[in-house]
Amino acid sequence: MDKYTNSVQYGKARNMCMSSDRSAFGKDTTADEVLAGIDLSGKTALVTGGSSGIGAETARALAAKGAKVIITARDMAKARNVVNGIRAASGAEIAVETLELGNIDSIRTFAERILARGEKIDLLINNAGIMACPQGQTDDGFELQFGSNHLGHFLMTNLIAPALADVGRVVSLSSSAHRMSPVVFDDIQFERRDYDKWAAYGQAKTANALFALGLNRRLTGRAIEAFAVHPGAIHTDLQRHLTEDDARLFAELEKAYTIQWKTIPAGAATSVYAATAPELAGKGGAFLADCGIWPVNDADGFGDGVRSWAIDAEAAERLWHVSEEMLGQAFVY
User: Example GO molecular function term (predicted)?
Assistant: First the structure.
């Protein structure tokens, strides 16, 4: 039995004993529990990085509630496996599109295909990402983690913005790792400092949160709200670049209860919550974790809470303009 099939069966089992008390959501809440009582019929959701992990679970959960789902992937064979599993489980309408977030031409071609569909996207979940990889560059010469995790989603989201449905939601997956680094505007691409894979990842995850803040401000006239999400610590393919030293560090953090691992269904819950929760109306720009708004915590280390640098409106505006300059394209709202 593969991980995806197991996740589907786990979701079905949890669905039988879900609580209707939305105030009780927390770390162990699953995506199915978040969606209890919510009907997504007639809605279209786009989930990047939907071929595995919490992206696949997010797509499954939304499809199970009636949404038409489009997932993006680089590995089309893996994506087709997810699509087939979702269709078999719910008979849902689901499609897959190829997208390489580290390649501007791929992003532009993808956006053209999405716009050509002529349909509105109600829920956009920017889920795809890479973590703590060796130093490298995207196909267009950007630092790999910042380029793929932030600039790729920044460009894609802005290009397909005309297809976003009014009164919709945009969710950008950040991480508690944003606590490792703000956006270092003086040296985003590690041209004048030694490359550190965790600082690079932290910077990119801070950028994801700041993008949500900047986007929320620009889309307010269309009643589209954007949120940033820390999904939690989940064992997925995201960790494929981790070394033995990294594994030992995570084991030590887990032993000290600093890191508490989640299941994949629980890992997808906050993304789904941000995309659908009616109680979040009017709270766009917030940073969420464990199916709630995360409090500010500027203490050093891996404690719970969002650091101020990830919800700083001035930094969000600076990042927006820097991103436009790096990509050579401005977006007017």
Answer: oxidoreductase activity
**Cα(131)–Cα(127) distance, rounded to whole angstroms?**
12
What amino acid positions are annotated as catalytic residues? 201
In whole angstroms, give the CA distance from residue 229 to residue 270.
7
Residue that has been written with the tokens 């460009």 in this structure:
155
Fold of 3-7+26-326: Rossmann fold (3.40.50)
C-alpha 104/C-alpha 99 separation (Å) is 10
53 Cβ contact partners less than 8 Å away, ≥ 6 residues apart: 234, 236, 237, 238, 264, 267
Tell me how far apart the alpha carbons of residues 171 and 6 are, in angstroms, rounded to a whole number. Answer: 25
Residue 276's region, left for phi above 0, alpha for psi from -120 to 50, else beta, is alpha
Domain boundaries, the chain: 3-7+26-326
- Among 60-74, 115-129, 174-188, 295-309, the minimum mean pLDDT is found in 295-309
**44 φ, ψ to 5°?**
-120, 130
Torsion of CA 250, 252, 258, 260, to 10 degrees: 60
191 secondary structure, DSSP code: S
Residue 15 has pLDDT above 50, yes or no: no
| Contact residues for 300 (Cβ-Cβ < 8 A; gap 6+) | none
Task: Label residue 320 left, alpha or beta by phi (over 0 means left) and psi (-120 to 50 means alpha).
Answer: alpha
Give the pairing of strands 225-230 and 164-173: parallel
Specify the pTM.
Answer: 0.89
* Phi, psi for 16 (deg, rounded to 5): -75, -20
Question: Which residues partner with 81 through β-bridges?
Answer: none
**Contact assessment for residue 127 and residue 61, using Cβ atoms and an 8 Å cutoff:** no
What's the average model confidence in pLDDT over 112-120?
96
Strand bridging mode 287-289 / 292-293: antiparallel
Strand, helix or coil for residue 157? helix
Q: Please give the pLDDT value at position 173.
A: 98
Can you give the pLDDT at residue 3?
42
Please count the other Cβ atoms lying within 10 Å of the Cβ belonging to residue 249. Answer: 14
Of 123-132, 153-162, 241-250, minimum mean pLDDT range: 241-250
